[in-house]
């Protein structure tokens, strides 16, 4: 997958309300799938699938917390206020996605 295709994929991942809501929730605090399900009032399978897609683009990652995974925002692009979304995604792919295209 080339750089443009990967950027397009990341933009598509962000073009989903549930995934954006997960990002918003994780901006407040890291959370388990169960906590995200409660916060967002969504089924576990939908949240898990959305997290998998966000992880594939390196927007989120997790660490083990006992038997659960605690998800957190990996990418700092959501903190940048003075750039367009495309600029932020391009910087993200350059930093976090080398070797994936």
CATH class bucket: Mainly Alpha
How would you classify the helix and strand content by structural class? mainly alpha
Q: What gyration radius follows from the Cα positions, in whole Å? A: 13 Å
Percent range for β-strand residues: 5-15%
Number of helical elements: 5
Write the element-wise H/E pattern from the N-terminal end onward. HHHHEEH
Helix content bin: 55-70%
Strand order of the largest sheet: 1-2
Low-confidence stretches: none
Oligomer state equals single chain
What does the average pLDDT come to? 83
Approximate shape: globular
Instruction: Say what the CATH topology is.
Output: Arc Repressor Mutant, subunit A
Domain count: the total is 1
What's the count of strands?
2
Largest sheet: 2 strands, antiparallel
Tell me the distance between the termini.
4 Å
Tell me about this structure.
The chain has 101 residues and is mainly α. The protein has five helices and two strands. The chain has helices spanning 3-14, 17-28, 33-40, 44-56, 85-96; strands at residues 60-65, 68-73. It has a two-stranded antiparallel ribbon with strand order 1-2. The radius of gyration is 13 Å and the shape is globular.
Offer a concise description of the structure.
This protein is mainly alpha-helical and 101 residues long. 56% of the residues lie in helices and 12% in strands.
Q: Which short descriptors sum up this protein?
A:
101 residues, globular, Arc Repressor Mutant, subunit A, two-stranded antiparallel sheet, mainly alpha
């Amino acid at each position: 997958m080339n750089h443009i295709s990967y950027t397009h994929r990341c933009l598509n991942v962000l073009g989903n309300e549930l995934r954006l809501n997960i990002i918003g929730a994780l901006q407040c605090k890291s959370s388990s799938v169960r906590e995200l399900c409660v916060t967002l009032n969504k089924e576990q399978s939908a949240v898990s699938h959305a997290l998998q897609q966000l992880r594939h683009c390196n927007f989120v990652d997790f660490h083990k917390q006992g038997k659960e995974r605690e998800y957190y925002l990996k990418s700092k692009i959501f903190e940048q206020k003075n750039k367009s979304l495309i600029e932020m995604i391009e910087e993200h792919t350059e930093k976090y996605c080398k070797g994936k295209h």
